[in-house]
Amino acid sequence: MVFFCIPCFALVIYFGVASVFFPKYRRYIKDGWRCFVEKLRGRKCSVSFDNRMRMAFSAWLTRRGMVRLGKFFNSHRNFNAFLITLTIASTVLTVYLVVLFIQFQITPPCTSETACSYEL
Hints:
71% helix; mainly alpha
């Protein structure tokens, strides 16, 4: 059940970050959040936000000459699988980078007398 919510959540995070730099994406955050909450409750998206984003992404790919890739992402199942994979990979990478940052902050600085070793 939760896996059906991940694509809309991934789009909310993406547009949340993108809206900091590009104000034209700010209007998508509200629709994406509404879609995420509705899917979390087990309902279908009344806004059809995920369908709109899927079609916009496949049209963007097609305009740039990537017709096969545009057809591949036009499928609802393929687009959701891509977003789920992207979200899981981003989460794993973020956790790994936070662990590395914490370890870097805790480890004392290297001096010429001690050997430097960074192990995870």
